[in-house]
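Sequence only, no structure available. Ideas?
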Amino acid sequence: MVFPATTLSASYHLKASGLSDVGRVRQNNEDNFYCGSENIYIVADGLGGHSAGEVASEMTVKHISGSQPKSMEDLVQLIAEANNNVYNEAKNLGNDMATTVSAMIIAKSKAYIAHVGDSRIYLVRDERIYMITDDHTPVMESLRAGLITVEQAKVHPLKHMLSRTIGTHSEVEIDTIIIDIGVGDVFVLCTDGLSNLLEDDDIHDVVKASKDTQATAVNLVAMANHRGGTDNITVVVVEIEESDVSYDEQQNITQEELDEQI
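Reply:
I predicted one. Tokens follow.
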């Protein structure tokens, strides 16, 4: 994927907000996310039911964030370790727990991204939105190969089937992407509870209309719930802002805060 040229000032800071909501249909939330103070951002969507998915996504997010990766090599190694941990735990418990994961670290002038599954990372730059990650599903692989159309992919009966997850096998292929960042860039990391209900243009418009990352996260989740909230909904929003002094400002939104604002 080719992105338009961008520039980055010597001093910038990151504003980030994360929010997870159970949605309108599910009884428990199997998503997890991380939006801490180490320039690490993660979303994960657990699979398996009966809380197994929640365990898988939590194990994965905690393993990656707790080790504070500083490079792409760190990120890939930690995801591979998380895959092995979840795989072994599933064997021990005799269930089919698994999870998606999309993780990003920002270091100096670049965003380092690694992911498995169909939790997406978008970039809003200037007046356009780019889906950075590729969904690891047979349907989307057929679409990328030109075997089906976008319209066919949207209504395909197997569109939610995953071809790659954390914990299903002892080893997993991990996609990696490196992007030059620029002032004004906004990254949106989300689980499919959001991306299945919102079009790319919807996400772009909410980012542009919202006053800050917290409002963006709240507004995106509210829109997904308004359209049915058929799954757990998780989003992390990261904005690169110009600053005289480099610092990180992180915000985590609680369910209580969400209820107050919607």
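The chain has eight helices and twelve strands.
Hope that gets you unstuck.
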